[in-house]
Amino acid sequence: MTTPILATSQLAVNVLDAHSLLAAFGVLGVGAVMFAETGLLIGFFLPGDSLLFTAGLLCTGSAQGTLHLSLGPLLVAAAVGALAGAQCGYLLGRKAGGALLARSRSRRLHDGVKRAEEFLERYGHAKAIVLARFVPVVRTVLNPMAGALEVPVRTFTQWQVVGGLVWSLGLTLAGYALGSSIPNVDRYLLPMVALIVLVSLIPVLAEVYRGRRAAGSEEGRG
């Protein structure tokens, strides 16, 4: 009786917990989650930021647990998953239009749609595609929206590659750098993940600040 119970417990995976996902699926899981979060609307709840950072940390071997990942394959999996997912989301949006988004009853997802629309209107295609990578949910819905709004394929592909590489490789290498410099860094994992998420929002906050400052200057001139 104990064997089936043990096997079941080992198979149980908390998809909201980065460490649980990594323990179950390793590097391949990172690529799959990156693809699902950026390419499939059902993946909007997945922990992309914390997964990348935690995976990078586990490449250093400084954590007390037994799980250890290889940095090279991890970087490849993260980048390929993030880029392929975004392109898939764009193509789905281009073919299905807004029907995919309209069918969802998730309030969080629809809030993300509104924010994605604001991104596209405020920053234009290039900046919006890059900045959306750093905002949870928005990075999921902006790709199909870009397809539905018929953003040129070349424009979307160019800037999603730029944003995807900066986001996926940047967070992974940030986790690796901190794990290499701080002994037993896993003790401080939760606050560090929160810090990394906040840092990842800096490009967005900077653009918001610039936009408000520019708007204030125009009002002052008027």
List descriptors.
mainly alpha, 10 helices, globular
In short:
The protein is 77% helix and 0% strand.
Give structural notes.
It is found in: Cell membrane. With 222 residues, the chain is mostly helical. It is built from 10 helices and no strands.
- Give the helix tally: 10
- Structure class: mainly alpha
Provide the gyration radius in Å. 19 Å
In terms of quaternary structure, the protein is single chain
Helix and strand succession? HHHHHHHHHH
Question: Quick check: average pLDDT?
Answer: 79
Helix content estimate: over 70%
- Which ranges are low-confidence, i.e. pLDDT below 50, for 5 or more consecutive residues? 1-11
Q: How would a crystallographer describe the biggest sheet? A: none
Distance between the termini: 78 Å
Shape: globular
**How much strand?**
under 5%
What is the element layout, followed by pairings?
Elements: H1 2-11, H2 18-39, H3 48-58, H4 71-96, H5 99-103, H6 107-132, H7 138-148, H8 153-181, H9 189-200, H10 202-221
Helix pairs in contact: 2-3, 2-4, 3-8, 3-9, 4-7, 4-8, 6-7, 6-8, 6-10
